[in-house]
Amino acid sequence: MTKSIETTGRTEDDAIAAALRQLNKSRDDVSVVVLERAKSGFLGFGASPAKVRVSWEEPDPEPEPVPKAVKPAPERKPAAQRKPTVPATGEEVDRVRDFLSGLFERMGVEAEADVSIDPETGTICVELTGEHVGALIGRRGETLDAIQHLTNYVINSGSDEHTRVNIDAENYRAKRADALTGLARKTAARVVRYRRNQTLEPMNAYERHVIHTALQDYEGVTTYSTGTEPQRRVVVAYDPATAPRDAGYTPRREDRPRRDDRRDSRPSHRSGDRYSSRPSYPSGAAPAPEKPPVDKTVKEWS
Predict the structure, then answer these.
(1) For residues 45 and 51, is the Cβ–Cβ distance under 8 A?
(2) Sequence spans of domains, the chain
(3) Whole-number Cα distances in Å, 94 to 33, 115, 118, 168
(4) Mean pLDDT within 208-231
(5) Which of 33, 61, 134, 143 shows its CA 20 to 30 Å from the CA of 16?
(6) Backbone φ, ψ for residue 100 (5° rounding)
(7) Angle, in degrees to the nearest 10, between helices 205-214 and 172-194
(8) 174 to each of 117, 171, 177, 179, 217, how far by Cα in Å?
(9) CA 195 to CA 241: how far, in whole Å?
(10) Cα-flanking dihedrals φ and ψ of residue 236, to 5°?
(11) pLDDT category, 54, cuts 50, 70, 90?
(12) Phi, psi (deg, nearest 5) at residue 33
């Protein structure tokens, strides 16, 4: 912050000295601007003192800290706890069978549900069979996923425990998992070959899990998901830290240089040891063009 005062004196030096005494500062600590020069006048008449402005810098005062308003800490809600997964019971198997039978009747689809319990995991496994069971699979298994999600909700609604229900039709899930595994490995091979990330089509959580699992040990790539449901996708990214040393870019066939056409690259004539597109002549010069014959049988008319 700049401050200044104005002082007067008989001369400019006297005015500056008066200001320094008032400020208790040295000449090097201030800057001086002469506002009016001293005038001696004539015989003492018209004389005027010198006037100067002396400026100096002072540090800005520190702002007083503004007391922050104390806000009450928001109450933390207890984290939602997942229901413990428990093995299925025979009663739950009957509930699943009755629910699916009523669902298919309302949908107008003739299908049967073979319901059993996996002895190792305690999961309820449902295999759908029927003449038009393909309609229950839907495009990329969307209808089958919806039926499974709805069945899980009905069976576990209002319970403190969770029982898993897996629904399949015509061994679709196993076939889909194999197809996704092959797709994942082909995509990873292209990513390592061209060193360029690739994004797969939108997939549900189960299909994304299959992709991540298939490539978790694949050298040279890493996977992650991006986007929001239902457009969430898996990105297969190139990872130079784990890529094999001999992995490199291989140009595609259409990117490779083509050989010149033989007809264009073949010389038309040869003269000595040099090729030329001009014809060669024995004398080294081109013959003169032939003149048209003169008709001497011209009749004169008088």
Answers:
(1) no
(2) 2-57, 90-170, 174-238
(3) 102, 8, 15, 18
(4) 91
(5) 61
(6) -65, -35
(7) 50
(8) 18, 6, 5, 9, 21
(9) 12
(10) -95, 110
(11) confident
(12) -125, 125
As a whole number of angstroms, the distance between CA 105 and CA 146 comes to 16
The domains spanning 90-170 and 174-238 adopt the same CATH topology: no
Decide if domain 90-170 falls under CATH 3.30.300.20. yes
Structure tokens at 46: 């018209």
pLDDT in tens, 13-29: 888 888 888 888 777 77
Asked if residue 126 lies in contact with residue 96, where contact means CB atoms within 8 angstroms, the answer is: yes
pTM higher than 0.90 for the full model? no
Cα–Cα distance measured from residue 203 to residue 137, given in angstroms and rounded to the nearest whole number: 15
Just give the CATH number of 174-238: 3.30.1370.50
Preceding omega of 230 cis (within 30 degrees of 0): yes
In whole angstroms, give the CA distance from residue 152 to residue 126.
Answer: 12
Under 8 Å between Cβ of 191 and 237: yes
CB 13 within 8 A of CB 20: no
CA distance 103 to 151: 10
